[in-house]
Amino acid sequence: METERRMVCIFCGGRANIKKQNDLKLVFCPSCRRETELDTYQDMFDRWVDEIRKEG
């Protein structure tokens, strides 16, 4: 797996890596050990942002 870039983990706040594995892009956080497909991760993040906007 090759690391492409880093971002903040939405689960624990740690620093997550975006890695390519075969044809998939995965978000992996070494702190909480979660691994999520990038598309799924982006959907979860978008829903979280929408909830924050509704509260504000």
Description:
The protein is an alpha+beta fold. The protein has one helix spanning 38-55, and strands spanning 2-8, 15-21, 24-28, 35-37. It contains one helix and four strands. Strands 1-2-3-4 form a four-stranded antiparallel β-sheet. A hairpin with a 6-residue loop joins strand 3 (24-28) and strand 4. The termini are far apart. The model has no long low-confidence stretch (mean pLDDT 89).
Estimated share of beta-strand residues: 35-45%
Order of helices and strands: EEEEH
Largest beta-sheet details: 4 strands, antiparallel
* Unreliably modeled segments: none
Put simply, the count of helices is 1
Helical content stands at 25-40%
Short description:
It is built from 1 helix and 4 strands.
Write the layout of secondary structure elements.
Layout: E1 2-8, E2 15-21, E3 24-28, E4 35-37, H1 38-55
Characteristic key phrases:
about 55 residues, alpha+beta, four-stranded antiparallel β-sheet, 1 helix
